[in-house]
Design a protein that fits this description.
The strands form five sheets. This protein has a six-stranded mixed β-sheet, with helices on both faces. Strand 16 (373-375) and strand 17 (382-384) form a beta hairpin. Helix 10 (210-239) packs across helix 12. The chain is built from 16 helices and 21 strands. It is of the alpha+beta class. The chain is elongated. It folds into three domains: 4-206, 3-Layer(aba) Sandwich (Rossmann fold), CATH 3.40.50; 217-317, Chorismate Mutase Domain, subunit A (Up-down Bundle); 327-438, no CATH class. It has helices at 4-12, 29-39, 42-45, 61-74, 94-108, 122-134, 139-142, 165-174, 191-206, 210-239, 249-252, 257-270, 278-289, 355-360, 385-392, 396-399; strands at residues 21-24, 48-54, 78-83, 115-117, 148-151, 154-157, 240-241, 246-248, 298-301, 304-309, 312-317, 327-328, 335-338, 342-354, 363-366, 373-375, 382-384, 404-407, 410-414, 418-419, 425-438. It starts with a helix and ends with a strand. It is 40% helix and 23% strand.
Length: 439
């Protein structure tokens, strides 16, 4: 028999007692049973909020929201309704769009230290693992859903993950609960529904304990994935440069192919990207990593561009509408915005541009047109910016975004890299230098 103690035990596995408890309440039987159990324990109920996400995709959606609110209020539980636009974007399946919209709404409702309870159970885990297997998933996919994971600003907990669906249905019947039924659950056009309605009954007929055995196998995959993640983190640290989030291609190529793939996957995970497919990894190694050091191949994935420059492998977010326009430095301003991602700040220093010259000049910030040159302290003649950029390894795509600081129309500094010998002074009490940092 299911009892509130099951929920309490799941919450005790969290690092700290939750500030408040949110419950993803669809109104279906699984989440209804979870809500009913929580409501039986006053200590849980007093911190509990039932959150219903209104997807707006079904005619019955408004009625489901009303049912969810009425049920929560009747159980003495606080209620929150979140309305979302769950229509699929280009490239999204209807299931993926609804899930993404739902998770985004649930995350936005969470504060630091909160816990979100969801009612996914052992049969859901079985479906998840089998779907991952059929889709060619790796160890992470075959590990299935974890019982607990970071989510938004808090933690997501699945207290029913080791509970069979039949036990949940039996509890609902014994308590004479009333829940809603989503008619889309009967449409076998969706992969999960097809598996649940057409395939799993046959599997369970032949292997009655397949839900437990497959879930046990998922646990083995989870353990193996955890060990590989530790190995990947160690290898990743040998090739990773934190300052620009790049990988050393030379050091990456000292590993065998399986470990190189493992390092790339770890890189993607660190950047919050989905795991790359096998086909993508083959493209990455064949067309980018193994390309000539002087080539500039580009591979697009998940709104990012993977490209190389010399020995470094970069992952750059695609920015649309970046408009690098010239402008005058506002009087008395300590910092100015450079494009969408950078801040240029002037700072006091014992060496740099004398502040008296700065204050007497018209200061403007411009961007590269081509052919610019600068004379540097301690070096003879003028040097073209193109050659200087190459000398210190500034990637080509960053060069046009480098702010050029002009005083009365004369180039005085290039970002925080160089100051012209015409303006550079040392040992004076008040000089200006620059710092270019991410915003």
């Amino acid at each position: 028999m299911l009892t509130p103690r099951l929920i309490g035990s799941a919450l005790e596995s969290c690092e700290a007692p939750p500030r408040q408890i949110l419950l993803a309440y669809s109104g279906g039987v699984d989440s209804h049973v979870l809500l009913h159990l929580c409501a039986q324990d006053q200590a849980l109920r007093d911190r509990l909020t039932a959150v219903h996400v209104h997807h707006g995709l079904q005619e019955q959606a408004e009625g489901w929201a009303c049912h969810a609110e009425h049920t929560a209020r009747a159980l003495g539980v606080k209620f929150l309704l979140c309305r979302v636009d769950a229509h699929p974007k280009p490239g999204e399946s209807p299931e993926e769009a609804a899930r993404n919209a739902r998770y985004a709404a649930l995350q936005s409702a969470m504060m630091p230290g909160d816990v979100l309870l969801v009612a996914q159970h052992q049969d859901d885990q079985l479906e998840t693992v089998l779907l991952q297997l059929l889709r060619g998933g790796g160890l992470l996919g075959l590990a299935g859903m974890p019982a607990r994971l970071p989510f938004g600003r808090g933690t997501l907990v699945r207290p029913f993950l080791s509970v069979r669906k039949q036990r949940i249905d039996d509890y609902a019947a014994a308590q004479q609960l009333r829940w809603v039924e989503d008619p889309s659950n009967n449409e076998s056009v969706y992969d999960r529904n097809f598996l649940r309605r057409e395939i799993l009954p046959l599997l369970k007929q032949r292997w009655p304990s397949c839900d437990q055995t497959v879930v046990r196998a998922a646990g083995h995959c989870a353990e193996a994935h955890a060990l590989l993640t530790d190995m990947a983190a160690e290898a990743f640290g040998e090739v990773y440069q934190e300052s620009d989030n790049t990988l050393s291609i030379e050091l990456l190529n000292t590993f065998d192919l399986p470990r190189r793939r493992m390092i790339i996957r770890h890189w993607f995970r660190q950047m919050g990207l989905k795991m790359p497919s096998q086909a993508f990894l083959e493209q990455l190694f064949g067309h980018v990593i193994d390309a000539g050091a002087n080539s500039d191949p580009v591979l697009c994935v998940q709104g990012c561009r993977i490209r190389r420059y010399r020995d470094r492998l970069y992952c750059l977010k695609e920015e649309h509408g970046e408009d690098m326009r010239d402008f005058d430095w506002p009087e008395h301003a300590e910092s100015v915005k450079i494009g969408k991602r950078m801040i240029l700040t002037r700072m006091r220093s014992m060496a740099g541009i004398p502040e008296t010259i700065w204050l007497q000049s018209t200061v403007s910030v411009k961007f590269r047109c081509g052919g610019e040159s600068i004379a540097l302290p301690g070096r003879q003649g003028h040097r073209r910016l193109k050659n200087l950029y190459q000398e210190i390894g500034i990637p080509p795509w960053q060069r046009d975004e480098m702010p050029l600081i002009y005083l009365d129309g004369r180039l005085a500094a290039v970002a925080d890299l160089w100051i012209s010998s015409e303006f550079y002074r040392e040992g004076q009490s008040a000089c200006i230098r620059f710092a270019l940092r991410p915003d």
